[in-house]
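**User:** Everyone, produce a chain:

**Assistant:**
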Amino acid sequence: VVAEVRGKRGLYRKSRDRREWIARAVLGIVDAAGPEAVTVAGVAEAAGMPEPSLLYHYPTKDDLLLAALGLADDEVAEATGAESANIALDLDVMRDQGLGPQWQSRNRQRLDAAMRAAATDPDHPAHGFIAERNRRALRAWSQIVANRQRAGLADPSLDPEAVAWQLIAVLEGFSTFAIAEPSGWGERGLRLGDLLADAVLRLTGAPRDS
């Protein structure tokens, strides 16, 4: 029985690794040529596997695109520590990086926008993906606000979850604007990082004793 369980775990790990390998192949195509360049044949070639094997893991092109977006999200979370239990958000880093390194890739911005648009259809696979992604963001931002309150950096009377909703809306608004007009900030003499950090300060409020 032990050998059988170990075998199943080994198969699961192998399947999980293969799915990540495929997602990386898709993300590589997105980075190089944009989401519209992704095809089942192209991904199979990039991943070095036959199409039937690819389709076993990801049955449609939309599934492939969502896998790539999920991988990009995981990379951002790992790089920024956004889901760490003790993150309180460094506003100096936000002022310097703006929306973060992930937004330096215009093709990833376009992938994000395409999947958000597709998610408006409740029958599209993006619908559930984006819903879970929103819940994940809400948990992370609620934790950030609560940590800032505990550190004396935010108004302790605020509801962290309510502020998290507001922060997510502001950040997504900035990101949507950045897709349509990526150079708009500089042309207006503004810095995106400063706008973002100021928005966080306004929404989280000042400490009670300031």
Residues 83 and 140 are 5 Å apart (CA to CA). The first helix runs from residue 2 to 33. Residues 1-6 have pLDDT under 50 and may be disordered. The two ends are 63 Å apart (CA to CA).
